[in-house]
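P.,

For your records, the input lines for the assembly:
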Amino acid sequence: MIQTAKDMKTYRKKIKAALKNKFLRKALDNFASSYKASRAKAFEGMDLSALKGEIAQGKDQALTVLEDLYLRFKTGAEASGAVVHLAKTAEEANEIIARIARDNKVTSIVKSKSMTAEETHLNDHLEARGFQVTETDLGEWIIQLRHEGPSHMVMPAIHLSRGQVGTLFSDVTKTPVDLEDIDRMVKVARKELRPAFLSADMGISGANMAIAETGTLGIISNEGNARLTTTLPRVHVALVGLDKLVPDLAAALRILRVLPRNATGQALTSYVTWITGAVECGASATGKKILHIVFLDNSRLELARDPVFSEALRCIRCGACSNVCPVYGKVGGHTLGHVYIGAIGLILTYFYHGKDNARAIVKNCLNCQACKSVCPVNIDLPFLIKQVYRRILADEGSKPVKNTILSAVMKNRRLFHTLLRTASALQGPLVKKEAGVLRHLPFVFGKAHDFRTLPALAEKPFRDQWPEIRPRIQNPRFRVALFGGCVVDFVSPEQALALARLLAPHRVQMEYPPGQSCCGLPAMMMAEEETAAEVAVQNLEALEPWRYDYILVLCASCGSHMKEGYSRLLAGKPELAEKLRSLQDKLMDFSSFMVKVLKVRPEDFIQNQRRVAYHSPCHLCRGLGVTQEPRELLRTAGLDYAPCKDEDICCGFGGSYSLEFPEISAEILGQKLDHVEATGADVLVTDCPGCVLQLRGGMNKRKGRVQVRHIAEIVAENLKAP
Amino acid sequence: MEQTELMDRMKEKAGLVQALVSTVTGMEEVLGRTVGITLGQGGKTIVAPGLDPENLQRLEDLCRAAGLTVLYPPFRPHLSAIHTALTPADWAIAETGTLVLDSDSEDLRIATMLSETHVAWIPVSRIVPDTAALSARLIEKMKSGPGYLAFITGPSRTADIERVLAIGVHGPQELHILMMEEP
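Structure tokens returned:
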């Protein structure tokens, strides 16, 4: 029975328990590494982004005519002898299937893997009505025997060790099973399940694709159980989500090109089965298969019409969003989902299984964008997760106090900045001066937050320093504005000072428009969209993009939010469109500006070949799509760049995420720092002040010897004196 | 793509997913290989749906000489007794090393699903570069009433326990692909 935490207190407990499971972490860790390699190999030589775009577009098109596609499918399939049903709810689908079983005097049922049947809890329903149901997919059989839900959409038993499976099989077969020999265990399943296939009266399958043009089901499988399930018993029932409808074979084949590759790195699964109508069946009295196809709505039609959430229905259930999720990698699917797992699960749970099951899990997203970049149908998963959170807050009609405070403060830049200045003045006794960190955490933090030191606020924010030190460049080559962001401005002004030092010799006139405020991303992360939109407008007004050639950011998160998030937030304000486009066209990250615009040369820098490791911030490599420039800049600036394992995996910061889920944040950070230390580098460099805060805090706490610096600082340090 | 190139690619891609691919020159060799494979595995029975009467008789003769039994349709009474299934494939897709079998016939399905070893022969002229090259025929087939079409890429497999690849869960444990060059 699936038990999903319905409140944060229970959820935190569950997370702590999951984090203690060393096997799980190791298994998921190995999987994440090997998945990355096999996926890359599977897509070698293919234009993946074009294919993704085509599928997404095709899916979106299909979603506008789902009911039409359903009718066409029904006509085609029924002309070939199938009976097609449409179930409004999960309960209705289960009842239709139970009725088919009763009408056909069925006693035993074999099932091949179907997430849709998991969604409706079909087994429970049938078993409660006296039918004997056997799951035949190996992973599903294992979890059925353990009375668990799947922990991954493609590999349902990935959370279990061979020892656990072996013990389970020994118990079930009443014969000892070698706890190491996986091949043997697979043969046990082959032998044990064969009689179930041979004696079943009914087979239940799902389907990966339902082709409207011909009334054909497409079923993808590796084990061959779906073929047996759909062949041997006299009755076949397919339970299919309405979202699986595609107009024609071409659309189905497009999905087939990416689904196995993106799911498991296979060019194709062992079996793809295309079933059109009722075929020959010797077990049936008529000599024809009794075929029923039950389409499940369960709010899909409503979702398809939703302007924000419809894209969630593009999902083809490859499970990749779990494979690359750093949080999934630490806590596993039973802690990061309800029935549907991972990023897409955080979204679909709300719609298919209600807000109670979604309430806690939906918060567990770092917004690292890894899922979004691996999604084969371009679903903006992190964005939709926040949107679900927003819906839940709206449904519940009461917001956390921190949301109310954050919104009130952030909408008023002067108030916000006054508070920061006041805090800076008052923090004195808390600060370890020489280290620039807080001696101990303020009382609001619990022990779980003690995995990193927190930096002190700067004595003087950058905005107050700038008017005194602003250089005036004669005949500047470029005029640029720096968008600092809160951390650079109030915590790490040295990063902006480093930038200023680097720009001056290139005759770049830098400005710091004083009206700029927080970029608004923290508000988005807390689902305070109105606040985020208000500060977006404030920033747009303050930055006056027309005055500058470039708008530079030292914080990848601010940059990617302004580049992508602002478009959505300001979509309803056509009067700002021109300004916004100008801002977005001119916005550039630090490294790209140095490499592509200023074209800095090695002779500008002291070539001291200090060994540096690099952390690629989520919002730089995935958000802004910048990957080569920072690495190139490090080499140009005379540093010995030492590649590190998993450079592009999140550091675990995620802004307020690390406050909400400190245990997971600490775990992700710990692994990142281990990888960094393994490179033997003296310095860890990154280009996001949030990452610096997290990485440096963690390195301090473990008393590591690796310094953590913003890339602007380390590059400026190597600048030759003029 | 040239035919030899298609054959090479088919062999490479099917090989990557543990299919055993070889080239044969005619039905005689297909039959001989099938008997040899079965004997080598200690199998006792062969089913051969889709074999024409003349070749079926030759298979019967070969099996009798080798002490094997040919089982005849319908196969439902033999569900647990099939060692080797010898079947034709209708098409092969080189890009993924896939066999395409029109499987409307229940006997063909039982043979390819419940045998321990599946031996499929495919005339080399029926190897196509990719699925797109087949799509018109697939649509035609799907539009022509009830049908069961199978893409088979390697033997049955799973990685459900610790993601360790294991071959032969519910389907054949071995898949032999015999690419048949026409004289």
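Two observations worth noting. The longest strand of chain A covers residues 235-241. The domain at 602-717 of chain A is CATH 3.40.50.1860 (Rossmann fold).

Regards
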